[in-house]
């Protein structure tokens, strides 16, 4: 009996090994693809193909075969089905992006750019997405993407400036001040960033952070750039805040007008 059980166990072992050595569908198709038997491989896969239940490997094999045979639409359909199961495959997402770009499907192209940029570690992918949204005038989508990447600390100074300016133009001054503060801290004091820095100054005035606005104004006046002569003092006076930038001289005519605004005198000939 013991000897019989030993023989039985060995038989079952070799039987299992034999089954393991029989190639499965994907292995068989992989050999056919390697031998460039594309039509045979395609027929074998499609014979039992069910998009809802097919494995990611089968979908990729069908996509590869379709690409080799020039069936572009079928290749794209297989890639789309594949990313439903494996949404983090960056290589396939780039294939989908290329398909939409070449086929002229702009909406699909934008969505594929978003998917690629979210997964990619390359800043060029993010730049391509943001520049496309801006160039095409999709400002709300651009704002959403800038906000997403800004929260992750992935924006370049010019992109921070763009985010701040979009908020500023939309009169969302608190959000503008947050984004433009990051720009002010990270970007060099060059004319390129002057519009964004001026918007930062005005957003601080709008939200009532006059002390920080004065700090920004002083830092800008200490440079040798053209903005050093900008009349920050008059901007404070427009908000009736006479205590800021007192060391800055204001032309006499401007001072008279501002005094009328701050402390208007009835019947005064100096005030219009």
Keywords:
mainly alpha; 272 residues; rod-shaped
Radius of gyration: 33 Å
Structural class: mainly alpha
- What composes the largest sheet? none
Let me know the average pLDDT. 83
* C-alpha geometry: rod-shaped
Low-confidence stretches: 4-8, 10-22, 261-267
Order of helices and strands: HHHHHHHHHHHHHHH
Quickly count the helices.
15
In total, the number of strands is: 0
End-to-end separation in angstroms reads 120 Å
SS strand fraction: under 5%
Residues in helix, %:
over 70%
Q: Your description of this structure?
A:
- 71% of the residues lie in helices and 0% in strands.
- The protein is mainly α and 272 residues long.
- It is rod-shaped and about 85 Å long.
- It starts with a helix and ends in a 10-residue tail after the last helix.
- About 9% of the residues have low confidence.
Can you give me a brief rundown of this structure?
The protein has helices at residues 2-21, 25-34, 38-47, 56-69, 72-85, 90-103, 106-119, 123-135, 139-151, 157-169, 173-186, 194-207, 210-221, 232-238, 252-262.
Compile the SSE list and pairings.
Blueprint lengths: L1 H20 L3 H10 L3 H10 L8 H14 L2 H14 L4 H14 L2 H14 L3 H13 L3 H13 L5 H13 L3 H14 L7 H14 L2 H12 L10 H7 L13 H11 L10
């Amino acid at each position: 009996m013991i000897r019989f059980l030993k023989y039985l166990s060995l038989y079952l072992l070799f039987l299992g090994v034999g089954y393991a050595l029989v190639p499965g569908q994907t292995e068989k198709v992989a050999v056919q693809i390697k031998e460039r038997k594309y039509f045979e491989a395609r027929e074998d896969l499609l014979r039992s193909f069910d998009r809802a239940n097919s494995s990611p490997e089968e979908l990729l094999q069908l996509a590869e075969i379709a690409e080799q045979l020039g069936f572009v639409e079928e290749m794209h359909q297989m890639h789309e089905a594949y990313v439903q199961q494996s949404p983090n495959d960056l290589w396939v997402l780039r294939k989908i992006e290329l398909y939409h770009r070449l086929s002229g499907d702009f909406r699909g192209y934008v969505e594929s750019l978003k998917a690629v940029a979210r997964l990619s570690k390359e800043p060029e992918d993010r730049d391509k997405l943001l520049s496309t949204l801006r160039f095409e005038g999709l400002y709300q989508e651009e704002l959403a993407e800038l906000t997403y990447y800004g929260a992750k600390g992935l924006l370049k100074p010019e992109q921070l400036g763009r985010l701040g300016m979009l908020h500023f133009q939309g009169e969302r001054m608190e959000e503008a001040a947050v984004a433009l503060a990051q720009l002010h801290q990270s970007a060099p004091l060059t004319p390129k960033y002057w519009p964004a820095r001026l918007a930062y100054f005005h957003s601080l005035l709008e939200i009532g952070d006059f002390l920080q606005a004065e700090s920004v104004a002083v830092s800008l006046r200490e440079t040798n750039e053209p903005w050093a002569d900008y009349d920050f003092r008059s901007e404070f006076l427009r908000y009736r805040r006479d205590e800021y930038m007192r060391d800055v001289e204001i032309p006499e005519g401007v001072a008279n007008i501002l005094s009328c605004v701050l402390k208007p005198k009835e019947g005064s000939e100096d005030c219009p």
